[in-house]
Known about the structure:
By secondary structure, chain A is an alpha+beta fold. Chain A has helices at 2-18, 24-57, 80-89, 138-150, 155-162, 197-200, 205-208, 265-273, 285-291, 334-343, 346-354, 383-392, 423-438, 450-459, 476-480, 508-519, 523-539, 580-584, 593-634; strands at 60-65, 94-96, 103-105, 108-113, 119-124, 165-172, 175-180, 228-234, 238-243, 256-261, 279-280, 297-302, 306-312, 358-360, 413-419, 442-448, 464-470, 489-490, 496-497, 543-549, 551-556. Chain A is built from 19 helices and 21 strands. The two termini of chain A are 46 Å apart.
Amino acid sequence: xxxxxxxxxxxxxxxxxxxxxxxxxxxxxxxxxxxxxxxxxxxxxxxxxxxxxxxxxxxxxxxxxxxxxxxxxxxxxxxxxxxxxxxxxxxxxxxxxxxxxxxxxxxxxxxxxxxxxxxxxxxxxxxxxxxxxxxxxxxxxxxxxxxxxxxxxxxxxxxxxxxxxxxxxxxxxxxxxxxxxxxxxxxxxxxxxxxxxxxxxxxxxxxxxxxxxxxxxxxxxxxxxxxxxxxxxxxxxxxxxxxxxxxxxxxxxxxxxxxxxxxxxxxxxxxxxxxxxxxxxxxxxxxxxxxxxxxxxxxxxxxxxxxxxxxxxxxxxxxxxxxxxxxxxxxxxxxxxxxxxxxxxxxxxxxxxxxxxxxxxxxxxxxxxxxxxxxxxxxxxxxxxxxxxxxxxxxxxxxxxxxxxxxxxxxxxxxxxxxxxxxxxxxxxxxxxxxxxxxxxxxxxxxxxxxxxxxxxxxxxxxxxxxxxxxxxxxxxxxxxxxxxxxxxxxxxxxxxxxxxxxxxxxxxxxxxxxxxxxxxxxxxxxxxxxxxxxxxxxxxxxxxxxxxxxxxxxxxxxxxxxxxxxxxxxxxxxxxxxxxxxxxxxxxxxxxxxxxxxxxxxxxxxxxxxxxxxxxxxxxxxxxxxxxxxxxxx
Amino acid sequence: xxxxxxxxxxxxxxxxxxxxxxxxxxxxxxxxxxxxxxxxxxxxxxxxxxxxxxxxxxxxxxxxxxxxxxxxxxxxxxxxxxxxxxxxxxxxxxxxxxxxxxxxxxxxxxxxxxxxxxxxxxxxxxxxxxxxxxxxxxxxxxxxxxxxxxxxxxxxxxxxxxxxxxxxxxxxxxxxxxxxxxxxxxxxxxxxxxxxxxxxxxxxxxxxxxxxxxxxxxxxxxxxxxxxxxxxxxxxxxxxxxxxxxxxxxxxxxxxxxxxxxxxxxxxxxxxxxxxxxxxxxxxxxxxxxxxxxxxxxxxxxxxxxxxxxxxxxxxxxxxxxxxxxxxxxxxxxxxxxxxxxxx
Lengths: 635, 344
């Protein structure tokens, strides 16, 4: 508010300055210009002074992001940006290695399981200290897990990790014992931030709902044992982390991390080019292409763990078996789904929707994970084969060239949906409509919001649509999306909600394997089962996995070097399952680099600012002079 | 655009008719009352408006995190209290004073407050620029209709008027932020302030000014064009009026005729428009704020709708409603002060 007032008073000051003009409006116009010029002119000198004082002694890694940190409270936030922030400030028991996501020690130096797999004992490192100076002990681990086990809101983000945990007990300062209801391999991958009991025990269930967990919260927020600590959070604009001097591991070279929020990819790319940020995350293919070959910028297209897919309504039902929805009967026939799979040109989709930055997809666990299964004979793009299959199965073309069910009823006209917020989704569905036409299937296309599509999916009132999944290192959750008990369900008032299974694919054998992998503690055996399951769903054409898309990132090589990909090689360098790059990056040339980056970006700013101010003042003066001359003419 | 006929008395005359101020008082009172009525209607309307939005708000939890069906159901239950129950809760707290944003988990008025000052800075700067330059250009173009200044300025302003603000914004970023050819990088491409600076300090003011120049210019260009075109049209309408002939016949110089007779009469429509626009810009700078990642109320509105945050939307629409109503009243009052005939 004060700033707005100040801006106004500047304008008033300018009015006196311009008051000698005959025409009041001319004076005011000049005043306005002067106000702006003044702001620009004034903006130049102190800004550069400030920048040098700031960056000479501080090496801040500035990351431009397109997604906001929705909430710093680890029980409330859900965006990837929020998870990245917690990873900077909080430690977990175990981490994921940079090489291949295999479990590695973090707060837990070591862990062992009993022979029956029902008791897990974690040894907690004794040198971990929270950023407020309090030591981190096994009691904090016990507290965090019990809070989730006893909580409701707490389960939103971490429920899946504790589903099989029965009790959690700290037996001494460095030992935590967990007992399970059923053995589960997730115990090596517990992605739960360990919170300080002395802070969080002051926040009861009611307070938890609106506890912001920020530095100015009460009690003070973001107190963790990780390498960075949140210093300044300016909602909707930037979030700055400093170094945690108490961190138990090797201190990072950088003094801090700053996330700057951009609302569109174009502005983010410009910010990277002019040196406002050092790193640009999650770019679109079209702006990414513009960065390749730029001086001092490395543009990296990394393998990622997300995929896009087309789903079929293969017979929507509630979990109890009640048929629901308006799905076309032909899609219950695996032959029809196979034919459509043959009609889809994935290469074209990768080229047209991702600008080539991705690979055609097959199964639901992406190739960068060791659990990925690649079918021996993938379904090829072959419209003739598709037509042959449909002809053979008896779906003959009518007079209008549209196929009907084998009994002559129900022309094959499908209802397709695309997602409003995704251009990829809309392009894919447009292409799909064309490909379907080639094999004698007509369709209507509608674009809806994701929220609406989620309703449509649950109610089964679609034939096909496009969406995507992001897959965790542990395959359990993704595999669970094809189990029978993830069908839609009905609540008391008759409303139907979607489960996870939006293909309505159900195979008892698949479910049996799912239960088996969930308790299999031998990693190789579990991988084998997971692969078998993926291939089952692939052969049944539950989904058409259209593409595994790349993750596009770019950074200034004149500012930082030493980024660590995950998995190594080929993976993304930030927004990983871990914070390897933050701990490892350093200026490219020790000594000179810390100041040079900002210097090179601020010098033209100073020159430009002065130039702009001069132009504006000149323009104002010109207006006054012009006015005088023209009045003089008249008089 | 209808233009009011000439004002009988010279506006700059210091003698105001005695009955005038009483009439003005009653006029203002009536306007305030009707504004209050509108506000009450909007408060009720807002509640149902947002609940007509399609979609399942719990969808945002899907595919983001592996959340179990039971937890999804619990989240839905929280969001899905019966509409009448929600309505009673709303009536008890229509201003959402206790409201917590579902998206950010903070009190909504904290969010709105934090985003209000950037919008006010942007609004103030751009309105100032647009008004001062727009009116001035319009007067000059209209007074010498058909002259070279008129031809050039009308062409330029029409071009600006037809330019979408967000596109102009992108061009400004390309040119003045990243720097093209001879242009160095002058201004930051996003945000409103740099980190580690107090907004109220000198460095803070400077940083805010730096960040505001481009979005303010983008916003001002479009409104400037609108004001100057309307001002020009009004002036042109006044040119043929007999009172101007009278004024000239009295021997007044051209610029006096213009300043004291033509401009006051011609400025009424523009003044109304400026006030009305202020009301709308508070919520309407959405595209510009998005392009420049400028964390103001327009951007917050965009985010609230994207995130289906009902409570936040309610609070924001309340702010916008009030600002439009207040600016409407201000516009009416301003015109009434300038033109005594309207008061009766």
